[in-house]
Amino acid sequence: MRTAAAAALVGAAALATLTGCSGLSFQDDICSGGEYPVMSIGSTGSACVKDGEKVPEGYTRYPEGKVPQKVDDEWDVYWRTHSLDEDGKVIDVPEAG
């Protein structure tokens, strides 16, 4: 009985090590490889643009250092209630209801 319990603990420790102790939670990327995220000006919309392509009209790049990388990361959550106006100033946007 003790051997089985010890083996289970060793297996759990190995799994935690292999997953980086992430608590088995995985987050999807905001954009696929070869793309970068952009946000709509004045609202909370967003899109992904292929690398090397221009930002579409009505969209802008996220401010440096404030780019969401993963779904539900700090910046993904922040930009759900904030946006940029036409002058690049951060504005509050009410949450979608």
Task: Describe the 3D structure.
This protein has 97 residues and is an alpha+beta fold. The protein has a domain at 27-92. Helix content is 23%, strand content 21%. It contains 2 helices and 5 strands. Strands 2-1-3 form a 3-stranded antiparallel β-sheet, with no helix packed on it. It has a two-stranded antiparallel ribbon with strand order 4-5. Strand 4 (82-84) and strand 5 (90-92) form a beta hairpin. The longest helix has 17 residues, at 2-18. The termini are far apart. Mean pLDDT is 83; it is low at 5-10 and 12-19.
SSE layout:
Layout: H1 2-18, E1 35-40, E2 46-50, E3 59-61, H2 74-78, E4 82-84, E5 90-92
Antiparallel strand pairs: 1-2, 1-3, 4-5
Task: Assign a percent range to the helix content.
Answer: 10-25%
Query: Strand share of the residues?
Result: 15-25%
Question: In this structure, how is the largest beta sheet organized?
Answer: 3 strands, antiparallel
Poorly predicted residue ranges: 5-10, 12-19
The chain-level mean pLDDT equals 83
Q: Oligomerization state of this entry?
A: single chain
Question: Could you tell me the radius of gyration in angstroms?
Answer: 20 Å
Structural class, from helix and strand content? alpha+beta
Total helices: the number is 2
Rough shape? globular
Our measurement of the CA-to-CA distance between the termini, rounded to an integer number of angstroms, reads: 54 Å
Name the strands of the widest sheet in spatial order. 2-1-3
Query: What is the ordering of alpha helices and beta strands?
Result: HEEEHEE
**Number of β-strand runs:** 5
